[in-house]
Amino acid sequence: MDLVFHNSAMVNIHGKLIFNIYIVFYCSAIILPHTCICSQFTSSSNGQHNKDPGAFTVATNGEPFPWHELRLPTKVVPLHYDLFIHPNLTSLNFVASEKIEVLVRETTQFIILHSNGLDIMNATLQSEEDLRYRKSGKKLTVLSYPAHQQIALLVPEKLMADLRYSVAIDFQAKLADGFEGFYKSTYRTLGGETRTIAVMDFEPTQARMAFPCFDEPLFKANFSIKIRRESRHIALSNMPKVKTIELEGGLLEDHFETTVKMSTYLVAYIVCDFDSVSGTASSGVKVSIYASPDKWSQTHYALEASLKLLDFYENYFDIHYPLPKLGRFKFHIIVFIRTCFDFFPLYM
Ligand SMILES: *[C@@H]1O[C@H](CO)[C@@H](O)[C@H](O)[C@H]1NC(C)=O
Ligand SMILES: *[C@@H]1O[C@H](CO)[C@@H](O)[C@H](O)[C@H]1NC(C)=O
Ligand SMILES: *[C@@H]1O[C@H](CO)[C@@H](O)[C@H](O)[C@H]1NC(C)=O
C-alpha cells in the first residue's frame, strides 16, 4: 500500500486513519500476504520465463548469470535476517550489512537474491553444519542482473541439501529520492530550518532497494534489526527496542527485538527527530503518534481518533472474525505523520 496522500481537511485524516487501522488489522491477521500481494507476484511471474529458451542471461560483468526467471528459485530459503543499517542524514547515504541464515533444500551452486540499486561490497558464506564452510567467511562471487533486480552469489563448492548456511553481505547506497525503498524526506521546522529524515516504503517489492533479500512474500523469515544514528535522532522499527549502545564518537546504535516470521515488505524502520504522544485503547493496544514539530498540533487529534477507531474496529471484528485471531495481537501501533500530512502505521 502506497499511502502517499495529500490533504488539509480533517475528513481525510479520518478516512486515512480508518484505512490505516484497517490495514494493520489485515496485516495482523496475515490476510494480506496471501491475497493481494501474492496475486501480484503470481500474475507477474507467468510468462516471464525467457521467451527464447536458448537465450542466455548475461550479468553486468559479461559472465553468464545462472538464473533466467523473474521469480526466485526455491532451492534456498531464508530463515533469519540480521540487518544492520547505518544511514547518514547529512551525506544522504547508508552503509549496511546483513547476515541471512538460509536453509538449502536442494543442492545448489548459487544463491539468487533480489537487489536493486545497491552497491554490494562483498559477500561471504559460513556454516556450522557444513565442514567445508566451517571456517568463517568464504568469499563469494557476486553477479548482478539488473533487468530482474537480482544478484547471484556463486559458491566455490556446492551447498548441500538440508543444511543451514549463513550469508554475510556488506553493501551501501544513497538514500533514495521519491517514495520507495529507504528514502530521504525533508520537513521545515517552525523556525524555518529544513531537516531531513529517512523513511521506508517496501511495498510491494521495494525492500530490495534497502537490503539484498528474498523479496517475495512467501519467503517469510524473522528479522533482527540494528540501526546506528546520531543522538539528535530516534530510530523506530517493527519491534520494541531491546537496548541502545553508545559507540565511540558519540553515535548510538538501537537494537530491536526479533520479529515474528514475516515477509520482507513488512519490514519497517525510520530515522527521524520527531516527538510522540501515546495512549492505550480499551483493548490494551498501545498507540503512539509521531510527528514533526510543525505537525504537532495534529497529534492529539490523531491519537484520539486512532484510539476511538481502534476500539470501534476491535468491537467490529469481534463480531465478524473469530476472537482468538485478534486476541493474539496486542500491538503497539505507531502512526507516523509524515511531512506532507501523509501518515502510515508501524506496528510493534
Ligand atoms: C567487506 O566490505 C566491508 C566494507 O568495505 C569491509 O569493512 C569488510 O572488511 C569486507 N569484508 C571482507 C570479508 O572482505
Ligand atoms: C554523518 O556524517 C557526518 C559528517 O559528514 C558526521 O558528523 C555524522 O556523525 C554522521 N552521522 C552518522 C549517523 O553517521
Ligand atoms: C521467528 O518467528 C516465530 C513466529 O513467527 C517465532 O516462534 C520464533 O521464535 C522466531 N524466531 C526467533 C529466532 O526469534
TrEMBL record:
Ranges for domain Aminopeptidase N-like N-terminal: 77-266
Transmembrane segments annotated in the record for this chain: 17-35
UniProt keyword Hydrolase present: yes
Gene3D superfamilies named in the record: 3.30.2010.30, tricorn interacting facor f3 domain
Entry protein name: Endoplasmic reticulum aminopeptidase 2
This protein's UniProt keywords: Aminopeptidase, Hydrolase, Membrane, Protease, Transmembrane, Transmembrane helix
One Gene Ontology cellular component: extracellular space
GO terms, biological process: peptide catabolic process; proteolysis
InterPro entries found in the cross-reference section: Aminopeptidase_N-like_N (IPR045357), Aminopeptidase_N-like_N_sf (IPR042097), M1_APN-typ (IPR034016), Peptidase_M1 (IPR001930), Peptidase_M1_aminopeptidases (IPR050344)
GO molecular function: metalloaminopeptidase activity; peptide binding; zinc ion binding
Organism of provenance: Catagonus wagneri
